[in-house]
Specification:
This protein is of the alpha/beta class. The chain has eleven helices and 16 strands. The radius of gyration is 24 Å and the shape is globular.
Length: 442
Amino acid sequence: MTAFNFRCMELERQWEATRPSPPPVGETLAQIQRAMDEAGDAKEQVFSEIDRMRDDAVEFLRSLVKIPSVNPSEQWEKPLADYLAREFRTMGMSVDQIEPQPGRVSNVARLEGAGREGRTLLFDSHLDTVPPGDEAAWRFPPFSATVWDGKVFGRGAKDCKLGIASSVIAVRALQSCGIRLKGTVLISTTADEETGGHLGIHKLIEEGLIKADWAVYGEGMPDKVVIGHKGLLQIRITTRGVTAHTSRKSRAVNAILKMSRVIPAIDSLDVPGVEPHPIVPGPPVASVNMISGGFKENVIPDRCSIVVDIRFPPTCSVQQIMGAVNRTLDDLKRSDGHLGGMVFDPVEPLVVARASSISPEEPVVKYLQACVQDVLGVYPKAEGMEATSDSRWILLDAGIPIVNYSLGNESGHSPNEYVAIEDYIRNIKVYALMALVSCRPA
């Protein structure tokens, strides 16, 4: 499979979730109340155990942050995936592991339930992180997992090792209390999220390893349960010119100067005819995020390329976006008469990711909202987000209704990324309670 087809494979995939209508909300809320009542004593026991495990939980999160899993890097996600696989097996969980390309390792760990009638609940989080960037901008070394001012600092602490650690410690707490669940808990830790999930969660689904009734994705914000997200299209636009020595500038066409006219037009791209989506906010948004051009200081450049990152709601298609891009470039061609006008290579799609959403009335949404309210005392909103998530694979390809949630913050992808320890402990409690009420004590 070519690089183009590999990262753009979703153009040929299903773009709509085919799910039955959710049951009446009143019926779901009554089920939640019964589940909460049934879990009452176990919940208090588990919450006390999580408080007792506080120091161990922090050390476990720190151990994950200390193992770099940068995408891209020489070893990729493998060292962290192997570390977690050993941890899962120590906990008595069965583990399936895949490595579709060297270093690109993902795990699925399974804690088997005691009864056939129980649900299967999946906790999914990704292993890979973005690079740390300029380490001089960090207060502490990015892989030191330094604890300071009630926070754990480090690359990946929030995005997404908080989710991984929370799901693991939640299961540990249940086991420590001797609580067996009727249903089954899966924990998937996946590669490649930062570049689309094609080598991670997609491959796990393709291998038939992701099968569950409900799923919780371990990345989000504390005030909302995320039930939808925008899609992603990344494209390369290249202008062509005519090269010459600087002293013969009048005979040349500078591709960088041509691109200087393209950038503002594309950065403010308008895609007409896109209706607002009821869950996922905002219109399509384009951002010119990378540029390359020229090959020598004293040579007029004959080529310049930009990479554009475009996020779009479920009501918009890739075809609509590409149409808007090409119309914009055609307008620039017609308006530019200098030395033969604008010359472009064909616009090149680099990555495609689908938008997706579920109904706010889906039971998994209501259950998680109830768990958050129990732990935090605040009922979170069920909303979409303007970013993109590889949770789409789980909904659209595995057919599992999924929500994104964690007590995170806005520090992911930034210097001094961190997790507040108190948020982390409460996040563990939310996940543990979700497992209790979803899978039910045996």
